[in-house]
UniProtKB/TrEMBL annotation:
Keyword field: Copper, Metal-binding, Plasmid
Membrane-crossing segments per the record: none
Domain of life, source organism: Bacteria
Pfam families for this protein: Tyrosinase
Gene3D superfamilies: Di-copper center containing domain from catechol oxidase
Designated name of the protein: Tyrosinase, putative
UniProt domain Tyrosinase copper-binding: residue ranges: 234-245
Gene Ontology molecular function: any one: metal ion binding
Length: 488
């Protein structure tokens, strides 16, 4: 029998919803709600003009006052420097709330430097707009990626964005990473652990977030700013992360989608940002408070406001999430770039019954797949594809019934004396395997001989690029399959 003492259980407190999502008076009274708009919409032209003016002033500080923490380079250094990620949160459950705060204080700086107090940061919806907007190109355009920090960081790239103006995300890339259908499959996931990351990276981070960083920044070996630790040097970073934040808001507004309730998450704040007066700020907002973006004075749409209000009102009781069964798979075999894991011992009757419970679609049951010890390869333009079931080959398509999901990497590029994030750094990745389990086992019970084989395959991130890491280069230590009752 498999028990789950290796994975911690966590509580989601819906009864505390009123407290968790309370709008602080000082914030609510200080500003009216701003609506963040799609950067491709004509409605965003005013905000885009203010963004251009504000970024120009922040870049000017590089020369006039290089020690000003509001300057363009030092703002990027909040995220990462030449050698490492600095204050930003990646590969853990703070990924979404930390970047939410980062965007908020950047938005305030643009308001200040542009003189537009009503400025709201636009978002780039790459699911609909498949190119970097043309408004972010041009030699004299402050919104182009025209800053190089080679004078202070020898491994930094030259100025210039990797992805040329007008080049589109391909249909295959949309299907695999950022198209509307792929994004909706991620957004429908009700489990924060596999969506936002608990003890590792969730789907929001490792699929669309990482892919867009690589797609924009690493083209033909260019390795521009967007794939560096200091990726905010490229102005499109802010539009990209604004879209990630929009997806986070959308996820939170959906019924049954609950953030962590542990104090460690709810009460965590981040004090590494700067306000318009150069003061270090951030502690006034906790992760729990910013679940509702209205705390920070902005929304993305009236529909999200309505949905969030209804969702919060429905959270009237304490809901406990519990891992009810775990299967450990550390036995592996590597054949022709397919790394397969199988259960260490035969599946017990209880395990097979619980997997079948999720397979037939019993409400509140999800199957988490936790891949531990994934190594960062030197060639990060690599897609990692994960399948359940037998007979998986290096060419098995994502239309296969056992397809669980995929991910890619964003952990700095180029040289530098990395402390943690060097090639070979290990991370954990969490994927929701429930739909694959339904397709494979919804109409048939697991047999005693079924070992719940998990197979991992690597492929080129971009279809027209041959260089990618082998599965041996990213070889994880083990796979853990958890059956979780979201309403235990």
């Amino acid at each position: 029998m498999f028990t789950s003492k290796t994975r911690r259980e966590f509580l989601i407190s819906a009864g505390a919803a009123t407290a968790l999502f309370f709008l602080p008076t000082k914030v609510a009274q200080a500003q009216e709600l701003r609506t963040r708009k799609n950067v491709a919409s004509p409605d965003a032209e005013g905000d885009l003009a203010s963004l251009r003016d504000g970024v120009s002033e922040m870049k000017r500080l590089i020369n006039t006052d290089p020690e000003d923490p509001r300057g363009w380079i030092l703002q990027a250094y909040i995220h990462g420097n030449c050698n490492d990620f600095t204050d930003c949160k990646h590969s853990n459950w703070y990924f979404a709330p930390w970047h939410r705060s980062y965007l908020y204080y950047f938005e305030q700086l643009i308001q200040h430097f542009s003189g537009n107090a009503t400025f709201a940061l636009p978002y780039w919806d790459w699911s609909q707009t498949h190119t970097v907007p043309s408004s972010f190109y041009g030699d004299a355009n402050p919104l182009d990626d025209n800053i190089s920090i080679q004078s202070i960081c020898s491994s930094a790239p030259t100025a210039g964005r990797g992805r040329p103006d007008g080049e589109e995300i391909t249909q295959q890339e949309l299907e695999e990473y950022v198209g509307p259908v792929r994004i909706e499959s991620i957004q429908q996931n009700p489990d924060y652990a596999t969506y936002g990351g608990i003890g590792g990276s969730g789907e929001l981070e490792v699929i669309p977030h990482n892919f867009i960083h690589r797609w924009v920044g690493d083209v033909g070996g260019k390795n521009s700013n967007m794939v560096q630790f200091f990726s905010p040097l490229d102005p499109i970073f802010w539009m990209h992360h604004c879209n990630i934040d929009r997806l986070y808001s959308d996820w939170l507004s959906r019924p049954g989608h609950l953030p962590p309730s542990e104090d460690e998450w709810q009460n965590q704040s981040f004090n590494e940002f700067y306000d318009v007066d150069k003061n270090q700020v951030g502690s006034e907002f906790t992760c729990g408070q910013t679940v509702d973006s209205r705390v920070m004075g902005y929304v993305y749409s009236t529909d999200q406001i309505t949905n969030l209000t209804q969702t919060l009102a429905a959270r009237s009781s304490i809901i406990r999430q519990q891992v009810v069964e775990s299967v450990i798979e550390s036995k592996s075999i590597l054949v022709e770039n397919v790394l397969s894991f199988e259960a260490n011992v035969d599946l017990s009757l209880r395990t097979r019954r619980l997997i079948s419970t999720a397979a037939v679609g019993v409400p509140n049951y999800v199957v988490r797949l936790r891949i531990e010890g994934v190594k960062t390869p030197k060639q990060q333009n690599t897609g990692v594809f994960v399948f359940l079931g037998p007979d998986i080959t290096a060419e098995t398509p994502i239309s296969a019934p056992g397809y669980v999901g995929n991910f890619t990497f964003f952990e700095g590029q180029g040289g530098g004396n990395r402390k943690r994030w060097s090639h070979g750094h290990k991370k954990n990745v969490l994927l929701n395997a429930t739909e694959a389990v339904k397709r494979l086992y919804g109409d048939t019970r697991l047999s005693e001989s079924n070992s719940l084989k998990v197979s991992i395959v690597t492929r080129s991130l971009f279809g027209d690029q041959n260089a990618f890491a082998s599965v041996e280069e990213i070889q994880p230590n083990m796979v853990q399959i958890d059956v979780v009752d979201l309403n235990a």
